[in-house]
Amino acid sequence: MLNKVVIVGGGTAGWMTASYLKAAFGDRINVTLVESGHVGAVGVGEATFSDIRHFFEFLGLKEKDWMPACNATYKLAVRFENWREKGHYFYHPFEQMRSVNGFPLTDWWLQQGPTDRFDKDCFVMSSVIDAGLSPRRLDGTLIDQPFDEGADEMQGLTMSEHQGKTQFPYAYQFEAALLAKYLTKYSVERGVKHIIDDVKQVNLDDRGWISGVTTAEHGDISGDLYIDCTGFRALLINKALDEPFISYADTLPNDSAVALQVPMDMEKRGIMPCTTATAQDAGWIWTIPLMGRVGTGYVYAKDYLSPEDAERTLREFVGPAAADVSANHIKMRIGRSRNSWVNNCVAVGLSSGFVEPLESTGIFFIHHAIEQIAKNFPNEDWNPNQRVLYNRSIAHVMDGIREFLVLHYVAAKRQDTQYWRDTKTRAIPDSLAERLEMWKTQVPDSESIFPYYHGLPAYSYMCVLLGMGGIEMKPSPALALSDPAAAEREFAAIRDKTRRLTETLPKAYEYFAQHH
Ligand code: FAD
């Protein structure tokens, strides 16, 4: 039986993998995690997808167990500011799209357009976020959603199995370093051997499989399966095993970021329960409100902007609160390993692949990868089909997200700088070009979006297309012949529910101050 796992790297990827494997296999698995005492983790990665709750559930953790320890908050949406024009914003919320007589409500919205805000007309969450509210009441109950929280039949499913069954209304935002610390404790308490040392060499046998890693002070460490969580360095998968890296730079040119962790009095400031992506002259700035600080950073393309100018713009954006905070400049490697599982090595996290964090997908990639590792854990046969299927599913997730991100730039109306003008002439994946043609006549549905699981349903594509404003969308011709009464009732029901919620939900800060 194979059961010895060596994880190299102790960032978010390393510790999420270690804790998940322990939760999945308990004492039947033997996990060693070695992380450098000198090379730090990337230090960013604080906003997530709503599916992340399945990770914590799988570990048996409740919000009250881990959220206070990680200064965590709720994220109900990504808020896009200035992508259409300065002063404009819209939300991409975690809220299932309603459907009326077989047509998504956004399709009816295009036909009837009660107001010019599709996100407020079609989703209740947009107004809840605008008002800075919590999706939970002070007694802890969740706003009513069309699903049963914690229902038995939902337990133990992977994210891809959940898709379409539920849409949980929020994700989390947390301090990455605190989460790694929390998961370290969780993992070590469950038997993970933790070694702080530098891996100096990765040793291969004569078949080209990893036979062990040599550390500076702890000698050789060997196992059956090696998990590369060394971040952009990709020490095992790309350096030792020489697996090629497929760059996405031709379609996603942002390759740099500068980040600031800005302490703030959140009681005074209040908490917007969302991650904001504010378009800038050569990229965009993220704003992630946590309990006690705001995480912020400028993602940009160095062909258009120098690191010094990016940092200056970011500091101006944040204001005096950032004066004494030091900046973290990060060079981003955008793309993926051709294969993430090669021989007896699986890469998880930044070593496997990364796209800019516009839709907070990095931790989602990690979560998806470790679900698949646990599901496809090998035995002595090392059946190559497992690797083929695993690699296919990882490639699909990343390639799908790449398409979705490219769509943001293609669909953004903004064209006021060279950076934004170039987004309209740059090559895009052929498959996306075909889809865009289709979406001009029919709004995206499950038949016309990227066909493999990649974490995003059709409504996410609709939000981006309708919100970015650079592509004219038309309603389905059939709606001109259809009775609009049911759609009008649905729009009215959303207005009613929005009013009810905004009058009764507590402020997000108030909720956390009481509960955490
Ligand atoms: P790292 O954090 O880089 O960890 C690498 C580990 O490897 C470290 O522990 C290091 O010590 C160890 N190591 C390296 N070399 C050696 C060696 N020789 N020997 C031993 N150990 C070694 N994701 C999201 O989901 N949401 C976001 O909002 C988001 N924002 C991001 C913003 C930016 C600018 C970037 C770059 C990424 C963002 N991500 C985001 C992605 C997210 O940060 C990563 O997916 C996540 O942090 C995982 O990183 P990692 O563990 O793979 O690598």
Automatic annotation (TrEMBL):
Pfam families: Trp_halogenase (PF04820). InterPro entries: FAD/NAD-bd_sf (IPR036188), Flavin-dep_Halogenase_NPB (IPR050816), Flavin_halogenase (IPR006905), Trp_halogen (IPR033856). Belongs to the flavin-dependent halogenase family. Bacterial tryptophan halogenase subfamily. This is Tryptophan halogenase family protein.
